[in-house]
Amino acid sequence: MLFSKIKILLFILLYLFSFVSYSKSEVVSEIVILGNERVSDETIIMFSDVKINENIDTEKLNKILINLYDSNFFENVSISLKKNKLEITVDEFPIIDNIKYSGIKSKTIKKEITQNLKLKSRSSLNPLFLEDDKEQIVLKLKNLGYYFSNIEIFLEDLQDNRINVEYKINLGEKAKIKKITFIGDKVYKDSKLRSLIVSEEYKFWKFISGKKYLNENMISLDQRLLKNFYLNKGYYDVKINTSFAKMINKEEFELIFNIQANKKYIFNDLRVTLPVDFEESNFLKLKETFNKLKGETYSINSVQDILEKIEEITLYDEYKSINALVDEDIIDNKINLNFIIEEMPKLFVEKINIFGNNITRENVIRNQVLVDEGDPFNILLTKKSINNLRSTNLFKSVNYKVNDGSDNESKIIDITVEEKATGEITAGAGFGTDGGTLLFGIRENNYLGKGLIVKAQANLSADSIKGELGITNPNYKNSDKMVFSNFKASEIDRLTSSGYKTNKTGFEFGTKFEYLEDFKFGASGRSFYEKIETDSTASATQQKQEGDYWDTFLNLDFDYDKRNQKFQTTKGFRSIYSLDLPLLSKTNTLTNTYDFKKYIEIYENNRTSLSFGLKSAFSLTGEDVKLSERLLVPSSKLRGFEFGKVGPKDGSDFIGGNYVTSFNIQSTLPYLFENAQNLDMILFFDSANVWGVDYDSSINNSNKIRSSIGLSLDWFTPIGPMTFSLSEALTKNDTDVTETFRFNIGTSF
Fold first, then answer.
1. Which CA distances in Å does 318 have to 153, 324, 407, 439?
2. Distances (CA, A) of 738 to 270, 458, 650, 731
3. Pseudo-torsion of CA 360, 364, 370, 373, nearest 10°?
4. 8-state DSSP, 552
5. Inter-residue contact 55 to 63 (CB < 8 Å)
6. Which of 657, 642, 652 is closest to 499 using CA atoms?
7. Of the residues 343, 372, 387, which one is the last residue of a structural domain?
8. Using an 8 Å Cβ cutoff, are 260 and 184 in contact?
9. Mean pLDDT per 10-residue run, the chain (749 residues)?
10. Is 302 helix (H, G, I), strand (E, B) or coil?
């Protein structure tokens, strides 16, 4: 582009020189166009921006010249004005017939490098654009790791001033990152800093990863990640100087980051300045946060959390529009922060525009938007709306833009979505100490564009066959209520371990919605037919339960979720209570379930959790609880013991109990290896018990608490998750069956 501007400037200078003696203006009475073959006279006159009977002087002539060159239609342009006649002579650029990119077999690479180029088929061949496009291709190839590529341009002249363009590309070898080095006042070990960035050192076993090649976009991201890390560790004025790559040998580079951490800062005085009409009592929790932070290490995330709390406080105060500023005052290594809240003029949402939805119905999108047209405008609600849309899993991307409305008091929200394929076919297989499993399922997450979820799934294991058909409407009648309906069938064979076999077929339907912030309520009904068979060696009491059952239950579910994130949670808690109430049942079994889990981060990158569970099942009418409704301890809550082989026994059969309680502590250990984020080593302590029977017999019903300690390894491999655990039972009953080692591997394909 620089050369283009220089060329135009030279023409301007030439024409200035040509017209130096020409100072007076002339009225144009005639315009003559010469040399044009494809571009019409009208088009040239339009670009010239000149009219008949217009006064033309030297300045105007130069402007015409610039306009015609800027059109990119012409290689040369000359202008003359004599006796009121304006003569424009042009030499047109050839037309590109076809553009070819040879030397590249990969469709992905070709698509990447050809996006957003200036020259296209049927466009004029501007040599300057040709060079610009070449530079763009070189840059894009570098971003893909091809630092040694070579590009040659070949032009083929055709008839009628047409031309073919060929970019002959030799990719060369990718530039490998042989070594990553951190220099300067870096404070932290290289191994720690390497774990933070995306780029990786080249290793022969990393044949899948593309992170081991130089990529300028990825390096820029690395710089941001490093800076954010230091800002959260108290290094307020950290500088991550421009990183650079040094060639070690052919095709191998050393990637170098220069870090100046400087000194560490702590929070000192934190306060908030409110507008006169703001109720100060609403901000008491904010002051509690200030007191906790004083004397703590400076963290940019803590500052951002405070700003979000300010937005949340003002959000529910009649949708007040505010602007929160942070005034920083630094004394030595202490930072004083004053959060200044300015009340802004109340704005309203004039219109909400939805773009990009070709399949998804507009009402499905609007159901996730927390503001309506005519509501007070609030940026926090707008952001939450965008997050809601992203969490639907219907779109590749969701973006928004806030534009000014028709007046100073209104805003227009433009939401742009990019839809993705929402159909899923999954198949899976797993193998572990309990045997193998097979899974097959089909699912559509946006049926008929209405956001409906339709699914079918089958699961086969050593002792069970399960099938399910279901449909879910996440936004029933354009509300935030989810409704669902499922048909289920299963056969579970526990003749060997528990003395019975059950076949169950039925359906369920229900709803779930957010009743309060972070609190969800669910209600569902399920009705099913069940046939129970017993082994010939089973006790008389067990055999008495053999037969057919029709049962109908009402389930109530209360879910209070305060986790910071659903996956790899580091703080918060989740509390769930569920009640199964019999409506029509032979045994009238009432089941209560309560689970509580607390998450904490003891040190950086650590995930520690404490969990407690309690479950009970008993008959409201004093009947024996059905064999299939009796309770067992889940394997995940009592490692070191075989599933189903803990608790009451009737002869040789483990029959389960009326009550289950569990307590678990587990914590991830520090990474033993560099860049081992896909490998978690977990230290755990499990304790649980199952007890209680409905009938008197020779049943072994120990109330003894079972417990175990062990080490678990969770490995997220390219073929699926693998789990290995070593456990040692600390306390047990004589009849319990223990296991020291357990592993599971599973994948989807």
1. 64, 17, 22, 51
2. 56, 30, 18, 11
3. 80
4. E
5. no
6. 652
7. 343
8. yes
9. 47 44 68 84 85 84 85 84 86 85 83 82 82 85 79 85 87 81 88 83 55 76 91 92 68 85 92 83 84 91 88 68 84 92 85 92 88 85 86 87 89 92 70 65 86 89 89 83 93 87 95 86 95 88 90 95 79 94 93 96 85 95 90 89 87 89 92 61 94 73 87 72 84 88 60
10. helix
Do residue 473 and residue 514 come from a single domain? yes
Q: Report how many domains make up the chain.
A: 6
Say which DSSP state 368 is in. T
Domain that holds residue 283: 266-343
Residues 677 and 602 in one domain: yes
- How many other C-beta atoms can be found within 10 angstroms of the C-beta atom of residue 189? 10
Q: How far apart are CA 107 and CA 2, in angstroms?
A: 32
686 shares a domain with 560: yes
Res 394: pLDDT: 86
Q: Which helix (H) or strand (E) holds 425?
A: strand 423-432
Same structural domain, 520 and 552: yes
Query: Do 522 and 591 fall within a single domain?
Result: yes
The pLDDT of residue 495 = 86
Instruction: Indicate whether 228 and 165 sit together in one domain.
Output: no
Write down which residue in 199, 230, 260 finishes a domain.
Answer: 260
CA gap 97, 16 in Å, rounded = 37
Q: What is the CA radius of gyration of the chain?
A: 36
Pairwise CA distance, residues 400 & 355, whole Å = 10
CA dist., res. 731 & res. 723, Å (int): 24
The DSSP output letter for 298 is: P
> Is the domain of 88 the same as that of 132?
no
In our burial notation (b when 16+ CB lie closer than 10 A, e otherwise), range 380-389 reads bbbebbbebb
- What's the predicted TM-score (pTM) here? 0.61
Taking the C-alpha atoms of residue 503 and residue 484, their distance in angstroms, rounded to an integer, is 23
What size, in residues, is the chain? 749
pLDDT at 8: 47
Which residues, in sequence order, are CB contacts of 633 under 8 Å at separation 6+? 641, 643, 646, 647, 660, 662, 688, 689, 690, 706
What pairs with residue 37 in β-bridges?
none
Contact 606, 636 (CB under 8 A): no
**Residues pairing with 436 in the sheet:** 431
Tokens 């870096």, located at residue:
186
CB 11, CB 65: distance < 8 Å: yes
- Report how far Cα 626 is from the mean position of its chain's Cα atoms: 44
Contact 451, 392 (CB under 8 A): yes
**Token couple for 409:** 């008091």
Closest CA to 684 of 663, 705, 670, 704: 663
Query: Is the separation of the CB atoms in 328 and 306 below 8 Å?
Result: no
Distance of CA 443 to the CA centre of its chain: 20
Q: Which two tokens stand for residue 671?
A: 């990474």
CATH of the domain at 80: 3.10.20.310
Task: Write the secondary structure of 94-151 as one string of H (helix), E (strand) and C (coil).
Answer: CEEEEEEEECCCCHHHHHHHHCCCCCCCCCECCHHHHHHHHHHHHHHHHHCCCCCCEE
Picking from 369, 513, 367, 511, the residue whose alpha carbon sits closest to that of residue 449 is 367
Instruction: Tell me the residue type at 615.
Output: K
* DSSP code at position 408: T
Token digits of residue 504: 């169950």
628 secondary structure, DSSP code: G
Single out the residue of 367, 372, 321 nearest to residue 344, CA to CA: 321
Residue 280 φ then ψ, to 5°:
-65, -30
> Domain of 598: which CATH number?
2.40.160.50
Q: Does 543 share its domain with 655?
A: yes
Structure token digits, residue 339: 């959060």
